């Protein structure tokens, strides 16, 4: 899994969210790093935090757990949380688990 530096840190507005680009696999071996990066980006997200999943090939239950946990933390801070561009396989996983109803997905 690769995480590109979130941007724009410290300069977000309601129209310019903090976007974290993730690529590769999100699994038990990489989910801790993802959680750490998202937690580090959260304080800089004044309006919205978007996780770009368009380059993620695989996600397991630990990855889903990270996304749900970050969503809860963001909500408590008043930050809107969304997933951008999950591939069909990940979109299906979100639908099968029912998380597509609780995690906001944007195009």
Descriptive account of the structure:
With 107 residues, the protein is of the alpha/beta class. The protein is 36% helix and 29% strand. It contains 3 helices and 5 strands, in the order ββαβαβαβ. Strands 1-2-3-4-5 form a 5-stranded mixed beta sheet, covered by helices on one side. Helix 1 runs parallel beside helix 2. The longest helix is centred in the middle third of the chain and has 17 residues. The radius of gyration is 12 Å and the shape is globular. It starts with a strand and ends with a strand. The mean pLDDT is 89.
SSE string: EEHEHEHE
Radius of gyration: 12 Å
**Total number of helical segments?**
3
Shape: globular
The N- and C-terminal alpha carbons lie at a distance of: 21 Å
DSSP summary, beta strand count:
5
- Give the DSSP E fraction (strand runs of 2 or more residues): 25-35%
Short description:
With 107 residues, this protein is α/β, with parallel strands linked by helices.
Kindly list the characteristics that best describe this protein.
107 residues, alpha/beta, five-stranded mixed beta sheet, 3 helices, 5 strands, 36% helix, globular
SSE topology:
Layout: E1 2-3, E2 18-26, H1 31-41, E3 48-59, H2 61-77, E4 80-84, H3 88-97, E5 104-106
Parallel strand pairs: 2-3, 3-4, 4-5
Antiparallel strand pairs: 1-2
């Amino acid at each position: 899994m690769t995480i590109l530096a979130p941007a724009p840190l410290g300069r977000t507005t309601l129209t310019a969210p903090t976007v974290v680009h993730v690529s590769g696999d999100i699994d038990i071996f990489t989910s801790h790093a993802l959680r750490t990066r998202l937690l580090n980006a959260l304080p800089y997200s004044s309006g919205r935090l978007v996780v770009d999943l368009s380059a993620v090939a695989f996600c397991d239950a630990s990855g889903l757990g990270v996304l749900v946990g970050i969503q809860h933390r963001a909500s408590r801070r008043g930050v809107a949380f969304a997933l951008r561009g999950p591939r069909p396989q990940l979109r299906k996983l979100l639908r099968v688990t029912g998380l597509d109803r609780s995690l906001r997905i944007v195009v």
